[in-house]
Amino acid sequence: MSTDAPADPSPQPAPEPLNPPAGQGESPLPTADAAYWEAAAASFDDEPDHGLRDPAVRAAWAARLRTWLPSGPTAVLDLGCGTGSLSLLAAEQGHHVTAIDRSEGMIARARTKLAGHEAAFLVGEAAEPPVGERRFDVVLVRHVLWALPDPAAALRRWAGLLTPGGRMVLVEGRWGEADPVGLPAAELTALVAPLAARTQVESLAHDPALWGKEVADERYVLLADLPRRHTEVVDVHLVLRRGDEVLLARRANTGYADGLFHAPSGHAEDGEDVREAMIREAAEEVGLRLVPEDLRVALVMQHCAPPPARPRIGWFFEAAYGAGGEPWNREPDKCAELAWFPLDALPDDMVAYCRAGLDGLRAGHRFLLHWHRPGDAIAYDPAGPDRAVVLDGPGPTG
């Protein structure tokens, strides 16, 4: 789930319950910046380019957005969406929008603004959006990147959320005369260059209709198109065995498969091999301090969620209960509970491909395919079609 490394590499604290009560393991109180934006939500739309209440300003942004986004319906991720004004324009142009902001007040107003449109809303940080990789055709960000502590890291993360050939639409600028703030176009172009196959900068300062007034500072949009070559995310799954039982985590507040059980899992970061990724994810999610000797590759699966998702390669690693300490829920904001289940009596409310992987492992298989078809559910359906294909010999997966 989380891609953040454990904050403290010191020895593991004393074992805690699988599911700590509210208050344990939670993030610190919101920062001053977060409180500021929460308080600003009520008046945010008063600015002409925020609320787009002036028909001329609204029309100017709609016209620009139409040229920046693909012509057909696409999956658009609006990061730092504020009250959802650009999200609404994208939805009105036929796109499927996921809107994310750190402020619950902003998200509440965005949800109201987009009522009746196909859109999803999540509270989360723009630098680490709570969504899955390779899911979006466009990442749309307006006046957010300049304020992040590590813009280069955020750009790498956003590029990982895009499908091959996807586009980042980055509206930025540099404002003020005596003590200017912001991100010059040349600097942003240099940051984006290693990620993109093509970039284009379009000045926005000369169009007062966008801002509701004349402006003299630097304002622009940078369009960054990613390479179209085929790539796949590599993810890792921990099959922690306690006799005949395995440990599962119920997903929550992630934007993907929430409410369903899944093995503790995550994806490999740049420069990280799959075993290193599994050790890191086990520490982040369930507090285990594993070493390479604790892990055994149990199964490898190429899987793909329902369209428009992209395929991924999943490595399932087995470890014995007791290795690395006692498991506990280190991410209660993303995991509703941890629970043990017999491998031959897994719950039905599971992510379908994970259920197929564990069924295949129990049947003695080592290599599987699991590709959803249009209309399939992400959740396992006992009465639904079996999408698992065995690659290491004949036999059922269940």
Name a few traits of the molecule.
398 residues, alpha/beta, Rossmann fold, Nucleoside Triphosphate Pyrophosphohydrolase, 2 domains, 9-stranded mixed sheet, 8-stranded mixed sheet, hydrolase, methyltransferase activity, SAM-dependent_MTases_sf
Blueprint (SSEs and pairs):
Layout: H1 32-40, H2 48-51, H3 55-68, E1 75-79, H4 85-92, E2 96-101, H5 104-113, E3 119-123, E4 136-142, H6 151-160, E5 162-175, E6 181-182, H7 185-192, E7 198-203, E8 218-225, E9 233-242, E10 245-251, E11 261-262, E12 265-267, H8 274-286, E13 296-304, E14 312-320, E15 335-342, H9 352-362, E16 367-371, E17 388-390
Parallel strand pairs: 1-2, 1-4, 2-3, 4-5, 9-14, 13-16
Antiparallel strand pairs: 5-6, 5-8, 7-8, 9-10, 9-12, 10-11, 10-15, 13-14, 16-17
Domain Nudix hydrolase: 229-363
Protein name: Methyltransferase domain-containing protein
Organism: Streptomyces nigrescens
